[in-house]
């Protein structure tokens, strides 16, 4: 029974990985009104990206291979429109589009802000959302970080890189840093205070039930 359970878990992991890889060239566009695309959604999306968003570094062979609305029931009048899922020929074009949407104010259609993000699987989206709170804390502390695919946080501090698979591990790491700082200094303070001048006492209560996960620094 245990062996069968393990095999099922392995197969599920492989299926999740395969689905994630199949989506690596996809982008999700949210905000286009229903039927704004006219007769051909694929052409509409390609034209809007090229002529309106104008991403820097877009390849000379930029192609939208396929595009469709999210496979859900059509919204009622006045409700939010369905998202558009577009598959690009080149994954590098996807990165250019995401960067343009993030760094410019050109992602607009009919005076509506268009949100563009990678078309992750539901499992990956849920895992990445789990880091939102700790990412906000790191930003407030002026500590650099990157959220890697599928859901792995890389934190950069004092010339070192730390990797975390779960947000609870990040909170525990921050608390560990705080204790080390207190031992070394012999006075009140925290790594948060020295990094950015922010008092970390407001988040210590979050650490009551931490996972016993350690992060190994990599140079």
Outline the structure in words:
The chain is α+β, with helices and mostly antiparallel strands. The protein has helices at 2-22, 41-53, 91-103, 122-129, 132-140, 167-185, 191-196; strands at residues 26-30, 64-69, 84-88, 108-109, 112-113, 115-118, 144-148, 152-157, 160-164. The strands form three sheets. A four-stranded antiparallel sheet has the order 2-3-1-6. A three-stranded antiparallel sheet has the order 7-8-9, covered by helices on one side. The chain starts with a helix and ends in a 23-residue tail after the last helix. Mean pLDDT is 80; it is low at 196-216.
Q: How would you concisely characterize the structure shown here?
A:
With 219 residues, the protein is of the alpha+beta class. 41% of the residues lie in helices and 18% in strands.
């Amino acid at each position: 029974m245990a062996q069968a359970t393990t095999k099922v878990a392995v197969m599920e992991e492989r299926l999740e990985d395969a689905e994630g890889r199949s989506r690596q060239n996809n982008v999700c566009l949210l905000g286009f009104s229903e039927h704004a695309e006219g007769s051909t959604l694929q052409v509409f999306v390609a034209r809007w990206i090229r002529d309106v968003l104008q991403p820097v570094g877009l390849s000379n062979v930029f192609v939208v291979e396929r595009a469709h609305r999210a496979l859900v029931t059509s919204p009622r009048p006045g409700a939010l429109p369905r998202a558009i899922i577009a598959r690009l020929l080149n994954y590098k074009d996807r990165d250019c589009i995401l960067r343009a949407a993030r760094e410019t104010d050109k992602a607009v259609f009919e005076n509506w802000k268009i949100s563009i993000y990678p078309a992750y699987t539901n499992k990956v989206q849920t895992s990445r959302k789990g880091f939102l709170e700790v990412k906000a804390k790191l930003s407030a502390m002026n500590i650099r970080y990157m959220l890697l695919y599928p859901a792995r946080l890389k934190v950069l501090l004092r010339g070192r890189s730390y990797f975390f698979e779960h947000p609870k591990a990040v909170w525990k790491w921050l608390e560990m840093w705080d204790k080390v700082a207190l031992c070394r200094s012999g006075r009140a303070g925290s790594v948060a205070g020295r990094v950015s001048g922010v008092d970390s006492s407001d988040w210590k209560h979050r650490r009551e039930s931490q996972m016993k996960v350690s992060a190994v620094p990599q140079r």
